[in-house]
């Protein structure tokens, strides 16, 4: 059945070429038969009595008025052999084209199914299986097409030769049929074993791919993990094991093939001996006996080769079944596409919101997000913070249209996104993650990946913005190679290029999911300060684990265990306990401070937890989403009052005054005041639009020798008048 489905797919994809190829095959078959007959005629005329040409040349005899002479038969033989060779050559040419075409089409068929599938389906697939299915499987299947066509030839040749031989010497055909019949049962058994073995080989090969991929992804780690004989999850030991098993399985199938060959040979030899014995004991002439033997020796290999090809096709069928399964599964999970105009490309920053959003990942027991409602006003920057696994990436992915939520809605400019709008929305979005891909290509090719229309000047502007222009010039310009996956660059440099690539797309919504995580806070502060200026044309969402990464934003949202714990303008969010704990954890202990006196971030967090909500308001106390206070009013001022000498650090720059001002200006102003020595807010310092980088100024970013090192350490909840957790922990004598 699988073989028939395979044949149907081949026919569907390459009908245009397969049809003439089959005609050529027929020609090969016909000339083969003609050659066989003229050989018989030649043998007869050569004195082999009894090898009479007989019926097949009767028409020729009638047309010529006499039996064809030796020269005529020789010419016929030569013409037939040459015609066969020519037809076989043309067929070979066509077969090569068919195989090349199939390889590409089969690969693209799966590729399109994967590219068009819903994200969870793609994400859930084993990468190595996909890798194998997209690289090796189409090659195997294309080879299968050649096998299938050669099988068709072999069958045609065997049938034609059999039919013609029947007219020449029916006993030979009967003998060949008898041998084939006798071998049929054991062959069927071997064929089944081969089919099963081939499936195993296929699975083992896919697993080997998995290990190869894992090994190559962990080359560095493997230098440390690999131990001789160890069966690790990654690395050379597992790789070696998978390789050995795959080779063993392949050998087993090969052995079955050899046994099949052995049976063919033994059966053929036995049948030939039987034919000769019959000839000798049935009063045949020597010529008749020799002709029988010659015909049999030509006929039997045709049958054998047809059978061998069938066995090969059985092996290919295993690969085809797996390939088909993948295509079917991905095609069944196709993401619906609406009409192109459904979500028209608008200009300027988008307002992106989620309403009562919940999401459970496929196969997960618990939802990653529960009932989240959040609004990102157009042209603002919002930071999403929360512990690991809180649901930040899931929320960012949903907002970017990577997948549809399990429940609730994502809205763009107030209009709910349908699943059929997702692809169109993604075209207006740029998402930068921590480890985004860089192609083993030039800087230019990597930058142009998402924005083919971007010109050189735009590329340099983007590189300036992310602080990579100087380095790019040193590398030799835009045509410098970045290495395999960017491995000629540092992690932070790779992130800069990914950022520049995203900016070049001029998205209406830019989501940065730990996109600057590999950068030093000083570098990061410089870059995000410049990114802030992009708010004129894009709404920004920043997922970050460091306050220094978010000190420039307009709004902050805190996610806890999949729920939105609080959200609002940065000023008011300063009071949130989670931000306080983050600040405490980030607080640098002065390098000149005695270790015993240093507050351990964990202690600080615990202290903050214990003091908990006295020091920092419960989420409910923080302004509810959508009920933002007027900038500069009420609580928003409170952090400023505490931002004095006794309480020098507001929460990572989450100061009321900063938020009360226009985006991109407030925080910067605050940190520019002379009091900054005691209140250094690194990111803010550079968050002013177009502010020149001032690397030495970062407080939280300052590793040593900074004013922070001399002033009391961070006061996480201090911004809202709470005792500083780090200091409290330190002074509590624990
Ligand atoms: N593909 C997935 N399948 C099943 N569960 C998932 C999948 N992706 C994420 N999760 C789970 O969903 C929850 C939220 O994950 P998410 O990646 O959104 O967290 P996060 O806040 O971004 O964490 P981090 O800060 O560590 O990146 C986690 O419990 C995680 O284990
Ligand atoms: Mg994440």
The H-level CATH homologous superfamily of the largest domain, spelled out, is: ABC transporter type 1, transmembrane domain
Ends: how far apart?
Answer: 74 Å
Binned, the helix content reads 55-70%
Largest sheet: 6 strands, mixed
The CATH architecture classification of the largest domain is Up-down Bundle
Oligomer: single chain
Number of strands: 10
Radius of gyration: 38 Å
CATH topology of the largest domain: ABC transporter transmembrane region fold
The unique ligands bound to this protein are: adenosine-5'-triphosphate, magnesium ion
What is the global morphology?
A: elongated
Number of domains: 3
Keywords: ATP-binding, Membrane, Nucleotide-binding, Transmembrane, Transmembrane helix
Subcellular location: Cell membrane
GO molecular function: ABC-type transporter activity; ATP binding; ATP hydrolysis activity; ATPase-coupled lipid transmembrane transporter activity
Protein name: ATP-binding cassette, subfamily C
């Amino acid at each position: 059945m699988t073989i028939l489905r395979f044949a149907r797919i081949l026919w569907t994809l390459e009908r245009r070429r397969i049809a003439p190829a089959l005609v050529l095959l027929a020609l090969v078959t016909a000339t083969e038969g003609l050659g066989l007959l003229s050989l018989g005629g030649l043998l007869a005329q050569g004195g082999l009595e009894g090898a009479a040409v007989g019926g097949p040349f009767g028409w020729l005899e009638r047309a010529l008025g006499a039996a064809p002479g030796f020269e005529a038969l020789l010419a016929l033989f030569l013409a037939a052999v040459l015609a066969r060779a020519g037809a076989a050559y043309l067929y070979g040419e066509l077969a090569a084209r068919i195989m090349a075409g199939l390889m590409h089409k089969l690969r693209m068929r799966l590729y399109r199914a994967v590219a068009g599938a819903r994200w969870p389906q793609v994400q859930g697939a084993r990468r190595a299986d996909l890798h194998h299915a997209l690289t090796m499987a189409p090659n195997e299947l294309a080879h299968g097409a050649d096998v299938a066509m050669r099988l068709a030839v072999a069958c045609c040749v065997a049938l034609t030769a059999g039919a013609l031989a029947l007219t020449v010497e029916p006993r030979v055909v009967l003998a060949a049929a008898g041998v084939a019949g006798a071998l049929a049962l054991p062959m069927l058994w071997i064929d089944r074993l081969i089919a099963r073995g081939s499936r195993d080989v296929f699975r083992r090969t896919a697993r080997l791919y998995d290990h190869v991929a894992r090994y190559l992804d962990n080359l560095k780690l493997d230098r440390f993990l690999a131990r001789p004989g160890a069966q690790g999850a990654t690395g050379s030991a597992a790789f070696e094991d998978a390789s050995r098993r795959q080779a063993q399985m392949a050998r087993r199938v090969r052995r079955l093939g050899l046994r099949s060959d052995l049976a063919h040979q033994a059966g053929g030899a036995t049948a030939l001996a039987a034919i000769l014995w019959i000839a000798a004991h049935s009063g045949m002439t020597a010529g008749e006996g020799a002709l029988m033997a010659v015909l049999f020796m030509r006929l039997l290999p045709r049958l054998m080769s047809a059978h061998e090809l069938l066995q090969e096709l059985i092996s290919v069928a295993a690969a085809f079944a797996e390939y088909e399964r993948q295509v079917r599964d991905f095609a069944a999970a196709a993401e619906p596409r609406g009409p192109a105009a459904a979500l028209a490309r608008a200009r300027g920053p988008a307002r992106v919101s989620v309403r009562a959003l919940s999401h459970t990942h496929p196969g997960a027991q618990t939802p990653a997000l529960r009932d989240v409602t959040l609004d990102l006003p157009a042209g603002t920057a919002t930071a999403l913070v929360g512990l690991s696994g809180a649901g930040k990436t899931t929320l960012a992915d949903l907002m970017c249209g990577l997948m549809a939520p399990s429940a609730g809605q994502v809205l763009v400019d107030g209009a709910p996104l349908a699943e059929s709008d997702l692809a169109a929305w993604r075209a207006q979005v740029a998402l930068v993650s921590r480890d985004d891909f860089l192609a083993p290509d030039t800087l230019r090719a990597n930058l142009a990946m998402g924005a083919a229309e971007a010109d050189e000047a735009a590329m340099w502007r983007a590189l300036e913005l992310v602080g990579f222009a100087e380095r790019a010039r040193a590398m030799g310009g835009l045509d410098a190679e970045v290495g395999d996956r960017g491995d000629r660059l540092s992690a932070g440099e790779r992130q800069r290029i990914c950022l520049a690539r995203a900016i070049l797309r001029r998205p209406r919504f830019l989501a940065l999911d730990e996109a600057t995580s590999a950068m030093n806070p000083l570098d990061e502060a410089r870059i995000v300060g410049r990114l802030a200026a992009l708010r004129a044309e894009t709404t920004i969402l920043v997922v970050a684990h460091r306050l220094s990464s978010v000190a420039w934003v307009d709004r902050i949202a805190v996610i806890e265990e999949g729920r939105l714990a609080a959200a609002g303008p940065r000023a008011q969010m300063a009071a949130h306990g989670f931000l306080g704990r983050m600040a405490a954890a980030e607080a640098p202990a002065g390098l000149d401070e005695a270790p015993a006196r240093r507050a351990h971030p964990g202690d600080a967090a615990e202290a903050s937890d214990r003091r908990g909500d006295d020091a920092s308001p419960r989420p409910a106390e923080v302004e509810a989403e959508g009920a933002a206070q007027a900038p500069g009013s009420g609580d928003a001022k409170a952090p400023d009052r505490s931002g004095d000498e006794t309480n020098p650090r507001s929460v990572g720059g989450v100061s009321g005054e900063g938020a009360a001002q226009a985006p991109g200006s407030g925080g910067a102003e605050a940190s520019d005041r002379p009091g900054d020595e005691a209140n250094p807010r690194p990111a803010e310092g550079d968050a002013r639009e177009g502010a020149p980088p001032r690397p030495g100024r970062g407080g939280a970013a300052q590793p040593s020798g900074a004013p922070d090192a001399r002033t009391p350490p961070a006061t996480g909840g201090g911004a809202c008048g709470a005792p500083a957790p780090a200091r409290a922990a330190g002074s509590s004598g624990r």
